[in-house]
Design brief:
Largest sheet: 5 strands, mixed
Distance between the termini: 35 Å
Strand content: 15-25%
Order of helices and strands: HEEHEEEHH
CATH class: Alpha Beta
CATH architecture: 2-Layer Sandwich
Number of domains: 1
Length: 128
Amino acid sequence: MDAPQSEEEDFIAKTKIIMEAAAEMKADQIVGLDMREVSSFADSFVIASGGSGRHVRSIAEAIIKTMEESNDRPLGVEGLDEGRWVLIDANDVIIHVFAADSRDDFSLERLWSDAPLIPFQPEESPES
């Protein structure tokens, strides 16, 4: 029997599952930020970009579906209809999926530059 994961392992695993779901939808500039030392409202942020409103919505919908398949339904989703900036509240992980120009406007990576990056390397798909 496997040993139970620590809270940190759970947090990292959940963040990477979300990042992988974004990568599978060909999201651009996927970044994970460890927010535990700089924020009281989330353990991590996942930030990703899409090339169009439709792409942003597709990325967000894939993340939501992945979470639901893990019995981890989001607490809230904002901006899905507009497709410029979708915010998904996954309790301990906050996901931001931006259209490229909106991401530049908000510059969350710069705003939260004190947060360490969470290493992420997307899995290779067989058709690559």
